[in-house]
Design brief:
203 residues; alpha/beta; disordered N terminus
Length: 203
């Protein structure tokens, strides 16, 4: 699969769904996947590191997954925090459809899968978890992060997983230099060639 497919709004080729057996939030789950999305065959290494390394999300409030794919991060947030509202955003319509249906299959009624433009700009997020789409290019990635990270609620935290050889350290420096006053950026952990970056907004 070409890397341009999964961040297209409408992937080329027909959507052919297939069962996907994965472990999410400590249990085996049978979900659906399809071609033309990010990591269609399972949980990619970066997302696995993120899910292993970060602390539990807030029990309530608004939670966000940037670039949801078929939904592993958003679904984990929804399972861990059933009283929270989980927003799963992606530019890929196929990904959004899969995330909606996978959430329904798990009984996660607290997931809203939407295009970025369809999320109320007034919503603020208590936590953001993301394996951001590094391969869209630096300018596009920076624009994406500047769209969402400033929408952290006071006291909120974002967790981003980035592969070391794809610029995690330079991204950390850029975030530190670019985010407005009141934001603190740090390296939370390193595992399996990935860094988990922590972005906190002061209360």
């Amino acid at each position: 699969m070409g890397s341009d497919h999964y961040f297209s709004s409408t992937p080329s080729g027909p959507e052919v769904r297939r069962p996907l057996r994965v472990s999410l939030n400590g249990a085996e789950r049978t979900l659906q996947s399809a071609g033309g999305i990010f990591s269609p065959d399972g949980i990619d290494k970066g997302t696995a590191v993120l899910l292993e390394e970060v602390p539990a999300p807030p029990a309530t409030g608004n939670l966000l997954d940037i670039g949801c794919g078929w939904g592993p991060i958003a679904l984990t947030l929804a399972l861990k925090s059933p009283a929270a509202q989980v927003y799963a955003v992606d530019v890929n319509e196929r990904s959004l459809g899969l995330t909606r249906d996978n959430a329904a299959a798990l009984g996660c009624e607290n997931v809203i899968a939407a295009l970025p433009a369809d999320v109320d700009p007034e919503v603020r997020f208590d936590a953001i978890w993301s394996n951001p789409p590094i391969r869209i290019g630096k300018d596009e990635l920076h624009a994406l992060l500047l769209l969402w990270l400033p929408r952290l609620a006071p006291g909120g935290t974002a967790w981003l997983v980035v592969q070391k050889n794809l610029g995690s350290d330079s991204l950390q420096r850029w975030l530190t230099e670019t985010l407005p006053a009141g934001f603190a950026v740090s390296r939370h952990s390193t595992a399996k060639s990935f860094r988990v970056l922590k972005v906190e907004r002061s209360a």
